Amino acid sequence: MFKKLKELSKTDLENKKVFLRVDFSVPMEGRELKEVHQIKAHKDTIDFLISTGAKVALVSHIEGENDAFKNTVGEIGNVLDYNIAFEEDILNPQLGSQLTLFENIRKYEGESMNDTGFAEDLAKNFDIYVDDAFSVSHRLHASVSAITKFLSSYAGFLMEKETTNLGKVLNEPAQGKTIILGGAKVSTKLPVIRNFLDRAEHILVAGALANTIFKFKGLKVGKSVVEEMEEQFDWSNSKIVLPKDFVVSSDKSGKGSLEIYPVKDIAEDKMILDIGLQTIEEFSKIIGGSKIIVFNGPLGMAEVDAFSAGTRAVLDSIVRSGAFSVVGGGDTLALVEKLGLTDRFSYVSTGGGAMLEFLAGNRLPGLESLGYYER
After folding, report:
1. 298: cis peptide before it, omega within 30°?
2. In the chain, which residues fall in CATH 3.40.50.1260?
3. pLDDT tens digits for 315-369?
4. What pTM was estimated for this model as a whole?
5. SS3 for 354?
6. Rounded to an integer, what distance in angstroms lies between the CA atom of residue 56 and that of residue 113?
7. What is the DSSP letter of 81?
8. Cα R_g (the chain), whole angstroms
9. Residues 182/169, Cβ–Cβ less than 8 Å
10. Which of 28, 114, 202, 271 sits most deeply, having the most CB atoms within 10 A of its CB?
């Protein structure tokens, strides 16, 4: 049974020690957080637990060059509007403060192994487990899965929002539903495409994902980013809409000359870096007639301003469409936040890989361990 945090009262939680799995692994430059939506998304859950008088251990992984929380706890506290204490070792928690952030959970070997003994050691100092980290629910890790064998376990408010909004995307009728996929990896996007062939009216495909498809079809794509496609798939399905034109350049810094090409062979020294005007127009028209839209991009090298026009235009079309809109994915979140559009969509998912796995119809270990599929 899928148990939710909101079902617990103050009496259930007062003075209880709560192991709260969150995801604070966001892009950083030095000690500066470059994307904060993912951190802010946990605030409702944290606020509720603090209001009940529970003692809360914030447990997360972090990736990248700075794979430690010790120097960033102050910045995270500023985002959440709390003074957060810091402790190194979740296996020996002191919990001297009501809200404590612990060091990177993935520094323990047992975490990624989903080791039952390690999970039991994690649980022994706590009364309740709350999972609010949808974005890692596709990981079979100890703090996501095995720990639920040893503690009463509940879905946090963010976890509930994610499953509700992404569930709506999956289950609403296909008519008027548009899926927009960019990025690079065919291996993570193809299962979503397969699952939505009968669940959506349109599937718009661009970015390096489209480059791979063009190469598969025999088009020369120059130095464009592509991925080897191991699975056979019929890309001629009428629901799948590929770019009609694209922006090419020999310089991905954005400082070189740009050209708009119709779909044709690309010279060996050039690369596809954005969608072109004709594609923007076609995508925007489809978006304008949609009732439900999912966007997991980007549609070009959007981190470079010169190649972000297509992604920006499509995001703007989604905002103006009035449709129920869901956007997600790490690179997408960073761009949406940079453009100040976070509050303009119906829902901004914190999930990247987890969002794609969910939309592909796969069972996620983190949700399975919470009883989500037993409802």
Report:
1. yes
2. 5-160, 172-358
3. 999 999 999 999 998 778 888 888 889 999 999 999 999 999 999 999 999 999 9
4. 0.94
5. helix
6. 25
7. T
8. 22
9. no
10. 271
Q: Which of 160, 122, 163 is nearest to 144 (CA)?
A: 122
Q: Tell me if 51 sits within 8 A of 8, measured CB to CB.
A: no
pLDDT at residue 68, as a whole number: 87
Report helix, strand or coil for 229: coil
Give the CATH number of domain 172-358; options: 3.40.50.1260, 3.30.40.230, 3.10.20.740, 3.40.50.10320: 3.40.50.1260
Q: Which is nearest to 160 in space by CA: 363, 349, 365, 352?
A: 349
Measured distance CA(354)–CA(138) in Å, rounded? 5
Superfamily of domain covering 5-160: Phosphoglycerate kinase, N-terminal domain (3.40.50.1260)
Which pLDDT score, from 0 to 100, does residue 187 have? 87
How far, in Å, CA of 38 to CA of 330, rounded? 9
Does residue 244 contact residue 275 with C-beta atoms inside 8 Å? no
**What's residue 339's pLDDT?**
87
Contact 54, 90 (CB under 8 A): no
Query: Is the torsion defined by CA of 289, 238, 351, 317 positive or negative?
Result: negative
The helix/strand/coil state of 82 is coil
Q: Note whether 355 and 294 are within 8 A (CB).
A: no
Q: CA 118 to CA 15: how far, in whole Å?
A: 25
Cβ–Cβ under 8 Å, residues 18 and 67: no
Low-confidence stretches of the chain (pLDDT beneath 70) = 65-66, 375
Sign of the dihedral through C-alpha 209, 210, 211, 214: positive
Nearest Cα to Cα of residue 38 among 70, 60, 6, 5: 60
